[in-house]
Design brief:
alpha/beta, two-stranded parallel ribbon, 5-stranded parallel beta sheet
Length: about 325
């Protein structure tokens, strides 16, 4: 009974604290037509202190969505256009020698911002991609002998184009694993496409003004950490991730030949964090199995390695995740 009262009080608190989410979503929809899943995913990453990898063909408002979200939050924003000739110093910064002072000065790179858009990240070679690793994991950058903390909140939102192979570099598994979510963006519906045309033929685009501050996001993250996860939900999350590693234990022996490696412990952590944030967005103080299933595809799709047999049989990571979710027992 005491627990039920606590949950009820928590629900009221979460409902009050999550009111700004509706304002952010409305602000995004003033500029972005449709793409509700994309907007939800950006909010989940923002509230969970995670980074997001967006994949989709050109023209699906990936860059516009990220830029609009950063404009709605009164914070620093920078955009890095990744190209084959980019250098790590172009991202994190470098030391410049001053003849006047006769010493080196640190010039910080564009990574020193609250929101960093790594546009077309797969166009730059591995040494440039890896320049982001320390920033994404430790939230700091080392230039020369000094380490500099990045501003808070700090979030990397990277985009990549799946249709071009020439002049692109696949992201290493180690770096992909550092992205909390990998979100696949699809084409809009016919009605949405007509609305996109209509909106773009207007002479003036909607003006985006800040609705909240960076401190509001930090406060919201603290509240998200209060969202209740039952032990049964924790078990459900662990079972889903373990099923990607040892499918035969869950009656999915046929998947053993299809998977070369399963989700890392980061998969379990991020699945729990994303489920909490999703419950918060839905203005609920506790996580239910539907929340876990709603975020499972974005959390796991880039953490499962496909074998040659899977690729030859046209088996996708989404198909494997679907089989696992359908088989693992729901609490």
């Amino acid at each position: 009974m005491a627990e039920a009262i606590d949950i009820r009080e928590l629900n009221i608190r979460i409902e009050q604290k999550s009111a700004f989410v509706s304002n952010l979503v409305d602000g995004m929809h003033n500029v972005i037509v449709g793409q509700r899943h994309l907007i939800d995913s950006l909010l989940i990453g923002l509230l969970s202190n995670g980074h997001i990898l967006l994949e989709g063909v050109p023209g699906l408002a990936k860059t516009l969505a990220i830029k609009t979200l950063s404009q709605l939050i009164d914070s620093q924003y920078s955009r890095i256009q990744f190209t084959p000739d980019l250098l790590p110093a172009d991202v994190v910064g470098t030391q410049i020698y001053s003849q006047k002072d006769e010493r080196f000065h640190v010039k910080k790179g564009p990574v020193f911002a609250n929101f960093v858009l790594a546009d077309e990240i797969n166009r730059a070679p591995a040494k440039v991609q890896s320049a982001l690793l320390e920033a994404m994991q430790e939230h700091q950058v080392t230039i020369g002998d000094e380490s500099f903390s990045l501003p808070t909140p700090f979030m990397v939102m990277a985009t990549q184009n799946p249709i071009e192979q020439e002049g692109t570099y696949m992201l290493p598994e180690a770096q992909v694993d550092r992205f909390m979510l990998k979100v696949i963006i699809d084409y809009p519906t016919l009605e949405e496409e007509k609305l996109v045309i209509r909106e773009n033929l207007r002479e003036r685009m909607p003006e985006v003004r800040p609705l909240i501050t960076a401190n509001d996001i930090l406060e919201a993250r603290r509240v998200v950490n209060e969202v209740y996860i039952d032990e049964k939900i924790e078990q459900y999350i662990a079972d889903i991730v373990f099923a990607t590693r040892y499918p035969e234990r869950y009656g999915l022996g046929e998947l053993s030949q299809m998977i070369t490696f399963g989700g890392s412990p980061r998969a379990s952590i991020n699945l729990a964090k994303a489920s909490r944030a999703y419950a918060f967005i839905r203005r609920r103080g506790y996580v239910v199995p539907e929340d876990v299933r709603a975020v499972a595809y974005d959390v796991l799709r880039h953490r499962i390695g496909l074998s040659y047999e899977a690729e030859a049989s046209n088996v996708t990571t989404e198909g494997i995740i679907s089989e696992i979710i359908n088989k693992v027992q729901v609490p």
